[in-house]
Amino acid sequence: MDSERPHPESVSVEISGCSKEDARIVFDALCTCFESDRGADDVPQQLHETRPMVWLGTFEVTEAHTCPPPAPLSSSVEADAQGGYWAIERLRSTLDSLFTVRDLASASGDQEKELHVLLESR
């Protein structure tokens, strides 16, 4: 069986339950590892003081680059990811190399898998 993927494998990642600074640390770390729809100047903003914020990004996980260790997080970060099975596994192993990852929940469908994890500094 050929290990080449016939099409790009992208994962959508939703970050919540944290400060905009911590959201940026997670996205910056993922952006150094994978191609993304987020530009370097695409900085998470806190648009409302009391309403919880959710930040979104899509990452192309077919090719992983070398990932330097991320800056320390000030608190834990909730991350939800959706994508194909292979792509979610690739994202998960990368997250494991960058952060301490705790599984909160996961759901599997026909073609897609959802992952809900808590990220903390190593």
Would you give an account of this structure?
By secondary structure, the protein is an alpha+beta fold. It contains 2 helices and 6 strands. It has helices at 20-33, 85-98; strands at residues 10-16, 35-36, 54-60, 77-84, 100-108, 112-120. The radius of gyration is 14 Å and the shape is globular. The mean pLDDT is 88.
Gyration radius, rounded: 14 Å
Specify the overall morphology.
globular
Q: Strand share of the residues?
A: 25-35%
Strand arrangement, largest sheet?
2-3-1-4-6-5
User: How many alpha or pi helices?
Assistant: 2
What summary fits the major beta sheet? Answer: 6 strands, antiparallel
Kindly name the structural category. alpha+beta
Helix content: 10-25%
Blueprint (SSEs and pairs):
Layout: E1 10-16, H1 20-33, E2 35-36, E3 54-60, E4 77-84, H2 85-98, E5 100-108, E6 112-120
Antiparallel strand pairs: 1-3, 1-4, 2-3, 4-6, 5-6
Question: What labels would you give this structure?
Answer:
122 residues, alpha+beta, six-stranded antiparallel beta sheet, 2 helices, 23% helix
Provide a quick synopsis of the model.
The chain contains two helices and six strands. The chain has 122 residues and is of the alpha+beta class. The protein has a six-stranded antiparallel β-sheet with strand order 2-3-1-4-6-5, with helices on one face.
